[in-house]
Amino acid sequence: MGRLDGKIAVIVGGGRNIGRASSKLFASEGAKIAIFDMEESRAAAVTEEVAEQGGECMYVVGEVQKVDDVKNMIAKVVEHYGRIDILLNCAAISDRKPMLELDDEDYRKIIEVTQNGTYFTCKYVAEQMVKQGDGGAIVNFSSGSAFNGNKQRVAYDMAKGAIVTLTMDMAVQLAQYGIRTNAIAPGITGSQVGGMIAMEDRSTNNLVGGRAGYPEEQASVALFLASDDARHLYGQTLRNDGGGSVL
Ligand SMILES: NC(=O)c1ccc[n+]([C@@H]2O[C@H](COP(=O)([O-])OP(=O)(O)OC[C@H]3O[C@@H](n4cnc5c(N)ncnc54)[C@H](O)[C@@H]3O)[C@@H](O)[C@H]2O)c1
Question: What separation in Å is there between the alpha carbon of 131 and the centre of ligand 1?
Answer without folding.
Answer: 29
